[in-house]
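Human: Cast an eye over this sequence-structure pair and say how the chain folds.
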Amino acid sequence: MYVSDEGKNNVYIKQKKISLLVPRFFLPCSNASDALNKLRFLAVTQPELLKDSVDLDIRIQTDEDNGIITLADSGIGMTRQEIVVCLSTIAQSGTAKFLKALKDSKDSGADSNLIGQFGVGFYSAFLVPERVEVSTKSPKSDKQYVWESEANSSSYTIREDSDPAKHISRGARLTLYLKHDDKGFAHPKRVEKLVKNYSQFVSFPIYTWQEKEYTKEVEVDEEPAEANKDEQTEITENKKKTKTVVERYWDWELINETQPIWLRNPKEVAKEDYNEFYKKTFNDYLEPLASSHFTTEGEVEFRSILYVPSMTPSGKDDMINPKTKNIRLFVKRFPRYFSFIKCVVDSNELPLNVSREILQESRIVRIKKKRLVRKAFDMILGISMSEDREDYMTFWRNFGKHMKLGGIEFVLGFLMYKVKEMKQEFGGTCDWIKKRLGQRVASVQVSNRLRTSPCVLAAGKFGWSANMERLMKAQNVVDTSSFDFMKGRRVLEINPEHPIIKSLNEACKTSPSDEETLRAIDLLYETALFSSGFTPESPAELGGKIYEMMNMALLGKWGSSAAAHSEQQVDAASVHETVEAEVVEPAEATSKK
């Protein structure tokens, strides 16, 4: 939106508030790379765009004392109209428009390295600076313009750059004026680290302004001692003393030396190149045991290089709880037993979505996972079948536990399938038992950890264990309402392989309302209470049921009827039989003798 036009300065209102993007997105090298790619493509048909300057590079200079970072490229630059459209409006991508123009004109071949898509990358420059200034000059125009805005402002300024000292022949120069508390971001080594982390494989050279040092020999003048001055004059003239001095200076240093060798034909890459790439990319000083470079085409296209390192990871929990960044994109989808594999994956078909969850659930990612796992197995198989047995012994010594874990997880898949079948078969029985027990248990589940016991009573996630329950009961607490609540958090786990549970499963299907079967469920629960360390709710009632079980075992029947069972419960709770011992006085005992 245009506001005013006074002299050479035009002030505009931003189309969207940049403050919405500031907390989420630094150093937009990708924008500079796109500008260089556009110029390289257009220069094929318009060589006059290059003029006398044919070098295509990116240069970053810092001033830590003043908190200034300057990023300059020799790319296509922008005209005044392009500045208004591309820099001043969020979600207006100049690269996306360029790609669309290529498609409309049926020109292709130069778009594979272009990065921009959404029109928000430039606004990452506002993450740390308080003011951003862009000086740009297009080879199609004789004028150089300056775009300037502050992070907390809703407007921007466009003016013509009239300072000859700041003129550039072509391209753009981005100047970031950092906040006072964030001047540390302008440290040369910190900028170098950022470039290596996020722009290591940009196809154009990136230079940073770094302090360097070198040593040189300088002459040292020494006065000889007075006594020997006349004698040493001739020797001093022929032989002068020197010392080593360290000189410091500033110069440009190439940061992205490592080239993306995965883009080359595997037949044209030597083993030394793979090893050197591995050392620089993964910061390892040892050469890898094996590598696999492949290109997948068809349904999904991607390039990848897999490495097996020579040494086991240093982290103790690397295998069980992998937090590795060896395969940054697929680490959550790669099997745990392959967490030691180091991998580079290049793909143009990943869905461009900010949500990591949507990306990981993508069908493309699942396909890539399967192919990467297959290639990893092939690579390990190649190590095992190689003539050099020492390599395989080294591999097994370092990563044998990972392979054992893989075998366990492979077999576990069949066990989980069996457990799933059991849960489906005994699901109705679990619901039936839960209905009978009511609030005494939180749930009834099928367990695969029981061997000889028909069931076990376990504490829930937020419930009390048996020991904790005994400790709480031992306290002199007036309000016992929490006891009943915690008792209801227990979980009854049943063993589907036990004959008792199998019999209950059949009874659930044939006679679910049979009184004797329901009483058997009660006895099963109370027995599980006792065997699991909990205190039975009514020891007398439990004893009566055990007597009935003994009666069934001895006489071949369950015992008394339901009415007699109720009567027995009352008698057991109220009657306490006692046996009085006969007391014999000593005198009486003597007379009896």
